[in-house]
Design goal:
Helices cover 84% and strands 0% of the residues. The protein is mostly helical. The chain has one domain (11-171, 218-263).
Amino acid sequence: MEVHHHSHHPKKWKEYFVEFLMLFLAVSMGFVAENIREKHVENERSEELIQAFIIDIKENQKQLDSLILQNQKQSSYFDSLSIVHATIKEPIDLYELANTLDFWMYRFINRKTIFEQMKSSGALRYIQDKDMLKAILTYEEHASLAEARSLETETQQYFDQFRPDLIKILPPSFFIYRGTVEKKYNQFNSVKNVSFHPGFMKNYLLHKNELIKDLKNTKLSIAQNRALSNIWFHRIDRLAVSLVSQISLLEEGKQLLKMLEQEHH
C-alpha cells in the first residue's frame, strides 16, 4: 500500500511543470505575436507617411518651378528698368509704367505637415538608411530656410522699403490707377461683382480721365529717375537671394525624390 501511495507524486509534479511550461510558452508567444503585429502596423503607417511625404515634395517641386520662372521674369524686368532709369535723361512715361509694372510677390510656402507628423510620431526612426534620413532632414532644413527667405526677408523688404520708397517718388494717381481702380474696374466688367459699392463706378467714370491725364503730365526729374533705378536694383538684390535658395532646393528635391522612389516604389 505504501509503494502505491508514494508512486503518484513524481507524476503529478511533472504534469504541473508541463502545464506551467505550456502556459509560459503561450504567454510568451502571445507577446511575440503582439510585437510582430505592432511592428507590422508601424511599418505600414511609416510607409503611408513616406508616400504622403513624397507627394508633398512633388507639390513643392511644382510650386518651385512656377516661382522660379516668375521670379526670374520679375528680376529681368526690374533689371531692365534699373538700367533705363539710371541712364535716361528725358522724363519717363508714368502712364506706361503704371500699365506694365508688376507688383506681385511670388512666395514659397513649404508643405511640411507630413514631415511634422513623421517627426512627432517617431516614424523617422524606422528609416534604416542613414543617408536617406540625413537627406530628408537636410531637405526640410533647406525648405524651411527657403520659406523664411521668401515669406520673411523678401516680404519685409517689399513692405518696409520697396513700396514706401516708391510712394515717396511716384504720384498718388500712379497707385490709384495701377493698384486700385483699373483692376477693380476690369473685375467689375468681367464678372459684374456685386460687392462693389454703387459709388465706385460713378467715381471711376468721373475721374478716370483725370487720373490718366495726371499720370501723363507728371514728369520725374533725373534725380528721381536715379532714385527709381536704386529701388529696382535693391528689389533685384532681394529677389536674387530667394532665387538662389529656390533653385538649390529644386535640385535637392529632385535628388531626394529619386532616392525615395527607388526605396519606396
